[in-house]
Amino acid sequence: MRLADAILDDCLCDPAAPLARDPARGYGLDKAQAQVQLASLKDWLRVQQTMLWANRRDALLLVLQGPDCSGKNGVIRRVLAGLDPLGLSPHSFQAPSEEERQHDFLWRYRACLPRPGMLGAFNRSYYEALVSDLRDSLCTPADIPLRRAAIESFERQLPAHGIHPLKCYLQLSVDEQKQRLHRRLEQPEKRWKLTLGDLQDHRNFARQQTQWAEVLRHSHSDTVPWYVIPADHRWLRDLLVASLLAREFERLALTWPTRPAPFTHADLDSTP
């Protein structure tokens, strides 16, 4: 149902060259095949998410990073669509507000961690504190080592709270980003999303990718790995993330709760 381990493991970050792979690689799959497979996989994910919610023991956290237009919203919309909204906890993080700046940089992310039984999704994450905050002069280069250590400590604590993070960096080529920005300019339903910052980020694409490669290099580990997802093809991006999510559910080995029912058939039949 999901993609094979060999394909998923091929997406594991290589700390020596985190973003050196081709973001347009296709693993020999085609769009029609991938869409059928994703639809089938989502039916299975729906059952797993319900069992996660029923047990209220563990939580999954899907962390999505990537450049503008790489599809962070798209993954949440396409992969998580159809799951029980009561068991979902999606959050999108932009530049911190004035109130958020009064707290430790991790404060707003801690406040949004999924509770037991929930499937959480972060569209951008605490890793923005190492790149975007620096770009926006919200911290200095001297702050980065301390922030990096704080994030490492933060992630080490997540399993103790039953939270299992799945970190995906959606790798997009600069040419594909330009095409998607052109499409946004042409489509009113997407044009409203654009800011001058999008143009500036596109012009600085290479420099930002270098910065993110450094982040991935330092924050990838065997216990909390990064997966670098080729995102030039939306259909493959979605199937890869869904398959990784399915593998996380498999590792949880969920079953339906076996606690006794709160009433019996006799109780029900005795009701007037």
Summarize the structure.
The protein has 272 residues and is of the alpha/beta class. Helices cover 47% and strands 11% of the residues. Helix 2 (31-55) packs parallel to helix 12.
What is the topological layout?
Layout: H1 5-10, H2 31-55, E1 59-65, H3 72-79, E2 88-92, H4 98-101, H5 107-110, E3 119-123, H6 132-135, H7 144-157, E4 163-171, H8 174-186, H9 188-191, H10 196-203, H11 205-219, E5 226-230, H12 234-252, H13 265-269
Parallel strand pairs: 1-3, 1-4, 2-3, 4-5
Helix pairs in contact: 2-12, 3-12
Keywords: Kinase, Transferase
Family: Belongs to the polyphosphate kinase 2 (PPK2) family. Class I subfamily.
Domain Polyphosphate kinase-2-related: 29-247
Question: What does this protein look like?
Answer:
There is one protein chain. With 272 residues, the chain is α/β, with parallel strands linked by helices. It has a single domain, classed as 3-Layer(aba) Sandwich (Rossmann fold), CATH 3.40.50.300. The chain is built from 13 helices and five strands. It has helices spanning 5-10, 31-55, 72-79, 98-101, 107-110, 132-135, 144-157, 174-186, 188-191, 196-203, 205-219, 234-252, 265-269, and strands spanning 59-65, 88-92, 119-123, 163-171, 226-230. 30% of the residues are buried.
Mind telling me which CATH architecture this is?
Answer: 3-Layer(aba) Sandwich
Q: For this structure, what is the CATH class? A: Alpha Beta
Strand order of the largest sheet: 2-3-1-4-5
Give the name of the CATH superfamily.
P-loop containing nucleotide triphosphate hydrolases
Distance between the termini: 47 Å
